[in-house]
Amino acid sequence: MAASFEQMRANVGKLLRGIDRYNPENLATLERYVETQARENAYDLEANLAVLKLYQFNPAYFQTHVTSQILLKALTNLPHTDFTLCKCMIEQTHQQEERPIRQILYLGNLLETCHFQSFWSSLEENRELIDSIAGFEDSVRKFICHVVGITYQTIDRRLLAEMLGDPLDTQVKLWMNKYGWTEDENGQVFIFNQEESVKPKNIVEKIDFERAVYVSSVHSQRSIPLGHHPGQTQRLLAAVSHRFAVYSPHTLSEGSSSRTGLHRELQRLLHLQVLAVWQVGRGAD
Protein backbone atom coordinates (compact mmCIF):
# COMPACT_ATOMS: atom_id res chain seq x y z
CA MET A 1 0.00 0.00 0.00
CA ALA A 2 2.81 2.39 0.91
CA ALA A 3 4.56 1.62 -2.37
CA SER A 4 1.41 2.39 -4.36
CA PHE A 5 1.03 5.71 -2.55
CA GLU A 6 4.64 6.67 -3.24
CA GLN A 7 4.09 5.85 -6.89
CA MET A 8 1.00 8.02 -6.90
CA ARG A 9 2.94 10.83 -5.23
CA ALA A 10 5.63 10.59 -7.90
CA ASN A 11 3.07 10.69 -10.70
CA VAL A 12 1.31 13.70 -9.21
CA GLY A 13 4.66 15.41 -8.72
CA LYS A 14 5.42 15.05 -12.42
CA LEU A 15 1.98 16.36 -13.28
CA LEU A 16 2.44 19.45 -11.09
CA ARG A 17 5.81 20.23 -12.65
CA GLY A 18 4.44 20.11 -16.16
CA ILE A 19 2.50 22.61 -18.25
CA ASP A 20 -0.77 20.93 -17.24
CA ARG A 21 -0.46 21.94 -13.59
CA TYR A 22 -3.75 23.86 -13.72
CA ASN A 23 -5.47 21.82 -16.40
CA PRO A 24 -9.00 21.09 -15.09
CA GLU A 25 -8.85 17.69 -16.75
CA ASN A 26 -6.37 16.67 -14.04
CA LEU A 27 -8.78 17.46 -11.21
CA ALA A 28 -10.08 13.92 -10.98
CA THR A 29 -6.56 12.58 -10.48
CA LEU A 30 -5.72 15.21 -7.88
CA GLU A 31 -8.99 14.66 -6.00
CA ARG A 32 -8.31 10.93 -5.79
CA TYR A 33 -4.88 11.80 -4.47
CA VAL A 34 -6.44 13.93 -1.72
CA GLU A 35 -8.68 11.04 -0.70
CA THR A 36 -5.67 8.73 -0.67
CA GLN A 37 -3.83 11.11 1.65
CA ALA A 38 -6.80 11.12 4.01
CA ARG A 39 -7.12 7.34 3.96
CA GLU A 40 -3.42 6.52 4.40
CA ASN A 41 -2.48 9.31 6.82
CA ALA A 42 -0.15 10.96 4.29
CA TYR A 43 0.18 14.59 3.32
CA ASP A 44 1.15 16.61 0.25
CA LEU A 45 0.53 20.35 0.62
CA GLU A 46 1.63 21.28 -2.90
CA ALA A 47 -0.88 18.94 -4.51
CA ASN A 48 -3.67 20.11 -2.23
CA LEU A 49 -2.98 23.75 -3.02
CA ALA A 50 -3.10 22.89 -6.71
CA VAL A 51 -6.59 21.48 -6.21
CA LEU A 52 -7.77 24.64 -4.45
CA LYS A 53 -6.24 26.78 -7.17
CA LEU A 54 -8.07 24.77 -9.84
CA TYR A 55 -11.31 25.35 -7.93
CA GLN A 56 -10.57 29.08 -8.03
CA PHE A 57 -10.03 28.97 -11.78
CA ASN A 58 -12.99 26.65 -12.37
CA PRO A 59 -15.74 27.38 -9.80
CA ALA A 60 -18.11 24.92 -11.44
CA TYR A 61 -15.83 22.03 -10.45
CA PHE A 62 -15.79 22.90 -6.74
CA GLN A 63 -16.19 19.90 -4.42
CA THR A 64 -17.12 20.56 -0.78
CA HIS A 65 -16.04 17.11 0.41
CA VAL A 66 -12.58 17.33 -1.16
CA THR A 67 -12.07 20.86 0.15
CA SER A 68 -13.05 19.70 3.62
CA GLN A 69 -10.49 16.91 3.46
CA ILE A 70 -7.79 19.36 2.39
CA LEU A 71 -8.59 21.67 5.32
CA LEU A 72 -8.59 18.81 7.81
CA LYS A 73 -5.27 17.51 6.50
CA ALA A 74 -3.85 21.01 6.87
CA LEU A 75 -4.95 21.00 10.52
CA THR A 76 -2.96 17.83 11.08
CA ASN A 77 0.17 19.78 10.12
CA LEU A 78 -0.13 22.46 12.80
CA PRO A 79 1.75 24.51 13.98
CA HIS A 80 2.72 25.12 10.35
CA THR A 81 0.62 27.72 8.54
CA ASP A 82 -0.84 25.34 5.96
CA PHE A 83 -4.37 25.75 7.29
CA THR A 84 -4.31 29.53 6.92
CA LEU A 85 -2.85 29.23 3.44
CA CYS A 86 -5.56 26.80 2.34
CA LYS A 87 -8.29 28.90 3.92
CA CYS A 88 -7.19 31.97 1.97
CA MET A 89 -7.63 30.07 -1.29
CA ILE A 90 -11.29 29.25 -0.65
CA GLU A 91 -13.94 31.69 -1.82
CA GLN A 92 -15.81 33.52 0.93
CA THR A 93 -19.14 32.25 -0.36
CA HIS A 94 -18.05 28.66 0.22
CA GLN A 95 -16.64 29.51 3.64
CA GLN A 96 -19.94 31.02 4.72
CA GLU A 97 -22.49 28.84 2.95
CA GLU A 98 -21.00 25.33 3.04
CA ARG A 99 -21.67 23.93 6.51
CA PRO A 100 -18.81 21.37 6.62
CA ILE A 101 -16.29 24.01 5.59
CA ARG A 102 -17.73 26.49 8.06
CA GLN A 103 -17.46 23.96 10.88
CA ILE A 104 -13.88 23.03 9.99
CA LEU A 105 -12.87 26.68 9.92
CA TYR A 106 -14.38 27.05 13.38
CA LEU A 107 -12.45 24.02 14.63
CA GLY A 108 -9.28 25.41 13.12
CA ASN A 109 -9.79 28.73 14.87
CA LEU A 110 -10.20 26.95 18.21
CA LEU A 111 -6.94 25.09 17.69
CA GLU A 112 -5.00 28.13 16.51
CA THR A 113 -6.18 30.11 19.53
CA CYS A 114 -5.42 27.19 21.88
CA HIS A 115 -9.00 26.66 23.07
CA PHE A 116 -8.36 22.95 23.21
CA GLN A 117 -11.19 21.89 25.52
CA SER A 118 -13.70 23.75 23.34
CA PHE A 119 -12.16 22.13 20.27
CA TRP A 120 -12.77 18.61 21.56
CA SER A 121 -16.32 19.46 22.61
CA SER A 122 -17.12 20.88 19.18
CA LEU A 123 -15.43 17.97 17.42
CA GLU A 124 -17.55 15.51 19.38
CA GLU A 125 -20.64 17.16 17.91
CA ASN A 126 -19.24 16.91 14.36
CA ARG A 127 -17.39 13.61 14.31
CA GLU A 128 -18.66 12.82 10.83
CA LEU A 129 -16.22 15.44 9.55
CA ILE A 130 -13.17 13.34 10.43
CA ASP A 131 -14.50 9.86 9.66
CA SER A 132 -12.37 9.66 6.51
CA ILE A 133 -9.23 11.29 7.99
CA ALA A 134 -6.91 8.64 9.41
CA GLY A 135 -4.82 9.73 12.39
CA PHE A 136 -6.52 13.10 12.72
CA GLU A 137 -6.94 13.09 16.51
CA ASP A 138 -3.41 11.91 17.23
CA SER A 139 -2.02 14.60 14.91
CA VAL A 140 -3.98 17.22 16.83
CA ARG A 141 -2.75 15.81 20.15
CA LYS A 142 0.79 16.05 18.87
CA PHE A 143 0.24 19.74 18.17
CA ILE A 144 -1.29 20.27 21.61
CA CYS A 145 1.72 18.59 23.23
CA HIS A 146 3.93 20.94 21.25
CA VAL A 147 2.06 23.94 22.65
CA VAL A 148 2.15 22.54 26.18
CA GLY A 149 5.87 21.86 25.85
CA ILE A 150 6.72 25.45 24.98
CA THR A 151 4.22 27.00 27.41
CA TYR A 152 4.28 25.06 30.67
CA GLN A 153 6.91 23.90 33.11
CA THR A 154 4.36 21.99 35.18
CA ILE A 155 0.69 21.30 34.55
CA ASP A 156 -2.05 19.53 36.46
CA ARG A 157 -2.60 16.06 35.06
CA ARG A 158 -6.37 16.51 34.89
CA LEU A 159 -5.98 19.72 32.92
CA LEU A 160 -3.54 17.99 30.57
CA ALA A 161 -6.07 15.19 30.04
CA GLU A 162 -8.78 17.70 29.17
CA MET A 163 -6.49 19.54 26.75
CA LEU A 164 -5.69 16.25 25.02
CA GLY A 165 -9.38 15.39 24.71
CA ASP A 166 -8.92 12.49 27.11
CA PRO A 167 -11.09 13.23 30.14
CA LEU A 168 -11.07 9.57 31.17
CA ASP A 169 -7.28 9.70 31.39
CA THR A 170 -6.69 6.64 29.21
CA GLN A 171 -4.05 8.08 26.86
CA VAL A 172 -2.29 10.76 28.89
CA LYS A 173 0.34 8.32 30.12
CA LEU A 174 1.21 7.36 26.55
CA TRP A 175 1.78 10.99 25.55
CA MET A 176 3.72 11.69 28.73
CA ASN A 177 6.05 8.80 27.94
CA LYS A 178 6.40 9.95 24.35
CA TYR A 179 7.68 13.37 25.42
CA GLY A 180 9.52 12.30 28.56
CA TRP A 181 7.16 14.10 30.95
CA THR A 182 6.99 12.88 34.55
CA GLU A 183 4.36 13.15 37.27
CA ASP A 184 4.93 13.83 40.96
CA GLU A 185 2.90 12.56 43.90
CA ASN A 186 0.65 15.64 43.82
CA GLY A 187 -0.60 14.99 40.30
CA GLN A 188 1.57 17.69 38.74
CA VAL A 189 3.18 16.78 35.43
CA PHE A 190 6.72 18.08 35.06
CA ILE A 191 7.00 19.26 31.47
CA PHE A 192 10.38 20.88 31.08
CA ASN A 193 12.80 23.18 32.79
CA GLN A 194 12.80 26.15 30.45
CA GLU A 195 16.00 27.51 31.99
CA GLU A 196 17.88 24.39 30.96
CA SER A 197 16.84 24.91 27.35
CA VAL A 198 18.23 28.43 27.12
CA LYS A 199 21.13 28.40 24.72
CA PRO A 200 22.68 31.84 24.49
CA LYS A 201 24.19 32.76 21.17
CA ASN A 202 27.65 34.24 21.22
CA ILE A 203 28.16 36.52 18.25
CA VAL A 204 31.86 36.76 17.54
CA GLU A 205 33.17 39.26 15.05
CA LYS A 206 36.35 37.90 13.52
CA ILE A 207 38.75 40.20 11.72
CA ASP A 208 41.87 38.86 10.09
CA PHE A 209 44.77 41.00 11.35
CA GLU A 210 46.66 41.08 8.07
CA ARG A 211 43.48 42.02 6.24
CA ALA A 212 42.72 44.77 8.77
CA VAL A 213 46.14 46.35 8.21
CA TYR A 214 45.64 46.01 4.45
CA VAL A 215 42.23 47.71 4.58
CA SER A 216 43.71 50.53 6.62
CA SER A 217 46.51 51.00 4.12
CA VAL A 218 44.14 51.07 1.17
CA HIS A 219 41.84 53.62 2.77
CA SER A 220 44.69 55.87 3.87
CA GLN A 221 46.19 55.91 0.37
CA ARG A 222 42.94 56.37 -1.54
CA SER A 223 42.16 59.85 -2.83
CA ILE A 224 38.80 60.82 -1.34
CA PRO A 225 36.99 64.12 -1.94
CA LEU A 226 36.76 65.98 1.34
CA GLY A 227 33.67 67.61 2.79
CA HIS A 228 33.10 70.69 4.84
CA HIS A 229 35.86 69.84 7.37
CA PRO A 230 38.72 68.40 5.28
CA GLY A 231 41.40 69.09 7.88
CA GLN A 232 39.54 67.25 10.64
CA THR A 233 38.78 64.26 8.42
CA GLN A 234 42.39 64.03 7.21
CA ARG A 235 43.68 64.05 10.78
CA LEU A 236 41.18 61.33 11.74
CA LEU A 237 42.19 59.08 8.85
CA ALA A 238 45.87 59.67 9.55
CA ALA A 239 45.48 58.80 13.23
CA VAL A 240 43.59 55.60 12.49
CA SER A 241 46.09 54.52 9.83
CA HIS A 242 48.96 55.16 12.25
CA ARG A 243 47.33 53.06 14.96
CA PHE A 244 46.82 50.19 12.49
CA ALA A 245 50.46 50.40 11.47
CA VAL A 246 51.54 50.10 15.11
CA TYR A 247 49.61 46.85 15.50
CA SER A 248 51.44 44.91 12.83
CA PRO A 249 51.09 41.12 12.53
CA HIS A 250 54.48 40.74 14.25
CA THR A 251 53.11 42.45 17.35
CA LEU A 252 50.22 39.98 17.55
CA SER A 253 52.12 36.78 18.14
CA GLU A 254 50.28 33.68 19.34
CA GLY A 255 52.03 33.83 22.69
CA SER A 256 51.26 37.45 23.39
CA SER A 257 49.06 37.92 26.45
CA SER A 258 47.68 41.12 25.00
CA ARG A 259 46.50 39.53 21.73
CA THR A 260 42.83 39.61 22.74
CA GLY A 261 42.99 43.24 23.77
CA LEU A 262 44.75 44.16 20.56
CA HIS A 263 42.13 42.29 18.59
CA ARG A 264 39.39 44.34 20.20
CA GLU A 265 41.39 47.51 19.57
CA LEU A 266 41.69 46.60 15.89
CA GLN A 267 37.94 46.07 15.70
CA ARG A 268 37.31 49.46 17.26
CA LEU A 269 39.77 51.18 14.96
CA LEU A 270 38.35 49.51 11.88
CA HIS A 271 34.89 50.74 12.83
CA LEU A 272 36.36 54.20 13.33
CA GLN A 273 37.95 54.00 9.89
CA VAL A 274 34.62 53.12 8.29
CA LEU A 275 32.91 55.96 10.13
CA ALA A 276 35.54 58.39 8.88
CA VAL A 277 35.05 57.30 5.28
CA TRP A 278 31.29 57.62 5.69
CA GLN A 279 31.66 61.15 7.02
CA VAL A 280 33.83 62.05 4.05
CA GLY A 281 31.19 60.68 1.71
CA ARG A 282 28.50 62.76 3.36
CA GLY A 283 30.63 65.87 3.00
CA ALA A 284 31.14 65.09 -0.69
CA ASP A 285 27.38 65.00 -1.18
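Second entry:
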Amino acid sequence: MADDKNELGGLNPALEGEQKASITWDDANMQTAFANVVNIQGTREQVELFFGTNRSWNPAADAGLKVDLTNRMILTPFAAKRLNTILTNVLREYEARHGVLKTDDQK
Protein backbone atom coordinates (compact mmCIF):
# COMPACT_ATOMS: atom_id res chain seq x y z
CA MET A 1 0.00 0.00 0.00
CA ALA A 2 2.99 2.35 0.32
CA ASP A 3 2.90 2.93 -3.45
CA ASP A 4 -0.76 4.01 -3.31
CA LYS A 5 0.18 7.54 -2.24
CA ASN A 6 2.43 10.09 -3.91
CA GLU A 7 5.06 12.18 -2.12
CA LEU A 8 2.47 14.80 -1.12
CA GLY A 9 0.11 12.28 0.43
CA GLY A 10 -2.35 12.30 -2.48
CA LEU A 11 -3.37 9.29 -4.46
CA ASN A 12 -0.93 8.08 -7.06
CA PRO A 13 -2.30 9.28 -10.45
CA ALA A 14 -1.98 5.74 -11.83
CA LEU A 15 -4.47 4.54 -9.21
CA GLU A 16 -7.00 7.36 -9.48
CA GLY A 17 -9.31 5.29 -11.66
CA GLU A 18 -9.26 2.41 -9.17
CA GLN A 19 -9.81 4.32 -5.92
CA LYS A 20 -12.07 7.24 -5.11
CA ALA A 21 -10.76 9.58 -2.44
CA SER A 22 -13.02 11.95 -0.59
CA ILE A 23 -11.80 15.57 -0.50
CA THR A 24 -12.64 18.01 2.28
CA TRP A 25 -11.99 21.66 1.34
CA ASP A 26 -10.94 23.63 4.45
CA ASP A 27 -11.26 27.36 3.67
CA ALA A 28 -10.62 28.60 7.22
CA ASN A 29 -7.26 30.16 6.25
CA MET A 30 -8.10 31.06 2.66
CA GLN A 31 -7.23 34.56 1.46
CA THR A 32 -8.72 36.37 -1.51
CA ALA A 33 -6.79 38.76 -3.73
CA PHE A 34 -7.57 40.59 -6.98
CA ALA A 35 -5.26 40.40 -9.98
CA ASN A 36 -5.55 41.80 -13.49
CA VAL A 37 -2.00 40.84 -14.50
CA VAL A 38 -0.45 37.37 -14.52
CA ASN A 39 2.94 36.10 -15.63
CA ILE A 40 4.29 32.57 -15.65
CA GLN A 41 7.74 31.05 -15.70
CA GLY A 42 8.77 27.46 -15.38
CA THR A 43 11.67 25.15 -14.76
CA ARG A 44 11.93 21.38 -14.90
CA GLU A 45 10.89 21.13 -11.25
CA GLN A 46 8.21 23.81 -10.91
CA VAL A 47 5.91 26.32 -12.56
CA GLU A 48 5.63 29.77 -10.97
CA LEU A 49 2.58 32.00 -11.41
CA PHE A 50 2.96 35.69 -10.53
CA PHE A 51 -0.16 37.76 -9.88
CA GLY A 52 -0.44 41.51 -9.60
CA THR A 53 -2.38 44.66 -10.29
CA ASN A 54 -1.71 47.09 -13.12
CA ARG A 55 -1.50 50.59 -11.62
CA SER A 56 -0.90 52.41 -14.92
CA TRP A 57 -4.33 53.34 -16.20
CA ASN A 58 -2.93 55.49 -19.01
CA PRO A 59 0.22 53.74 -20.31
CA ALA A 60 0.76 56.31 -23.08
CA ALA A 61 1.04 59.14 -20.53
CA ASP A 62 2.97 57.05 -17.99
CA ALA A 63 5.54 55.84 -20.58
CA GLY A 64 5.23 52.29 -19.33
CA LEU A 65 3.32 50.04 -17.00
CA LYS A 66 3.60 49.83 -13.23
CA VAL A 67 2.51 46.46 -11.86
CA ASP A 68 2.36 45.69 -8.15
CA LEU A 69 3.10 41.98 -7.76
CA THR A 70 1.08 40.62 -4.85
CA ASN A 71 1.19 36.83 -5.00
CA ARG A 72 3.37 34.03 -6.30
CA MET A 73 2.09 30.48 -6.56
CA ILE A 74 4.58 27.66 -7.09
CA LEU A 75 3.15 24.50 -8.62
CA THR A 76 4.52 21.13 -9.54
CA PRO A 77 4.37 20.51 -13.30
CA PHE A 78 1.62 17.93 -12.67
CA ALA A 79 -0.48 20.45 -10.71
CA ALA A 80 0.16 23.09 -13.42
CA LYS A 81 -1.10 20.70 -16.09
CA ARG A 82 -4.25 20.00 -14.07
CA LEU A 83 -4.76 23.76 -13.61
CA ASN A 84 -4.37 24.26 -17.36
CA THR A 85 -7.00 21.60 -18.09
CA ILE A 86 -9.46 23.04 -15.57
CA LEU A 87 -8.96 26.65 -16.73
CA THR A 88 -9.38 25.64 -20.37
CA ASN A 89 -12.69 23.96 -19.57
CA VAL A 90 -13.97 26.86 -17.44
CA LEU A 91 -13.08 29.44 -20.12
CA ARG A 92 -14.65 27.30 -22.86
CA GLU A 93 -17.92 27.28 -20.88
CA TYR A 94 -17.64 31.04 -20.17
CA GLU A 95 -17.12 31.89 -23.85
CA ALA A 96 -20.02 29.64 -24.88
CA ARG A 97 -22.29 31.69 -22.60
CA HIS A 98 -20.85 35.20 -22.92
CA GLY A 99 -18.86 35.36 -26.15
CA VAL A 100 -15.22 34.97 -27.10
CA LEU A 101 -12.63 36.80 -24.99
CA LYS A 102 -9.82 38.36 -27.01
CA THR A 103 -6.48 38.92 -25.34
CA ASP A 104 -4.12 41.76 -26.33
CA ASP A 105 -2.13 39.47 -28.63
CA GLN A 106 -5.33 38.46 -30.49
CA LYS A 107 -6.66 41.98 -31.21
